[in-house]
Amino acid sequence: MPTREDRQFNGKNYYRYPESENISDRNYFRTSGWGGRPSFLHRDVWEYHNGPIPEGHHIHHIDCNPGNNDPSNLECLTGEEHYAHHRKENANNPEWLAARQAQMDHARTFASEWHRSEEGRAWHSEKARKQWENPTVKVGVCTHCGDMYESPMPGDYCSNKCKSAARRASGVDDVDRSCENCGSTFRVNKYTKTTTCSRPCRAALSEKTKTRKSTGQHRKAEKACTWCESTFMGGPLAKYCTKKCAGHAQYAKRKAALANPQ
Question: What is the chain's pLDDT, residue by residue, as a tens digit (262 residues)?
Fold first, then answer.
C-alpha cells in the first residue's frame, strides 16, 4: 500500500500520497471527490478565511511548501502570475519541466479537436466579433528604436522595419566572405549581394569590370584547342586557338567525309 498522509479541516478529510509519481498527488492535500469534483485543502482554507476565489485566480503557497496550508502562507494570484512564479522557481527542475510538457501534450490533443468543432468555431467567431467592435489598444515601447506606439497586441518592435534592423544588428545571419578584389575575408549579412570588403575595393572591382567588358575579356575563359590541344583564352563558342588550327580541323573533316561516303 502506498504511504498516505491525512489532514482534517472544517469537518473534511484531505489526503496526499508523498511517494506518488504524479506531482499533484504527491504535493497537494485533497478530498476523495465522491459525489462531485475533489476539493483542495489550500483552496478551501483560503476561501474559509477570505471568501470565494475570483475567477481565473489561483492559491499560491508563499514558502513553496504545499504541505504548509496555514492561512498566512497562502496568497491569491492570477493564473498568469502563478505560472510565471513557478516557471522561474522550477526553470532548472527536469521533473517539473517534464511534467509540464506531458500536461501540455495531453491538453493539446483535446484542444485541437475542440477548436475544430462547431462549438470552437462559434467561440472564435464571437471572440473576433467582440474584438472588432471593441478593439483594445495598448501602448508598447520598441526595443530597437525606443519609440512608443499603440497596438492591440504590442510586441518587441513598432514595425517590420525595426524588427529587420534589429535582426541585422544582432549578426545572427552574418557569414564570412572573400573579397573579390583583394581576397581578404570580411563578414556580411548572408542575404546581401555584397562581394567586396570596402568601398575602395568596390570601386577598384568596378573599374576592372569596365575594362574587361570594353575588351571583351569578361566573356573569355582559358580553354584547350580542339586541334593542337594548346591552351588559349576564348569565348563560349571558341574551339581553336588560331585560324590555322581551325583550317586544319576543317580540312581533316572534309577528308574523312570523302574517305567514308554515306
Answer: 578 999 999 999 999 998 888 888 888 999 987 767 889 999 999 999 999 999 999 999 998 899 999 999 999 999 888 888 877 777 777 877 887 788 888 888 888 888 999 999 999 999 888 888 887 788 889 999 999 988 877 888 999 999 999 999 999 999 999 999 999 999 999 999 999 999 999 999 888 877 766 665 556 788 899 999 999 888 778 888 999 999 999 988 888 888 877 6
Q: Which three cell numbers stand for residue 186?
A: 570580411
| Dist. CA 196–CA 169, nearest whole Å | 20
Which amino acid, one-letter code, is at 14? Answer: Y
Q: Name which of 95, 106, 107, 101 is nearest 20 in CA terms.
A: 95
- Structural contact between residues 56 and 43, judged by C-beta atoms closer than 8 angstroms: no
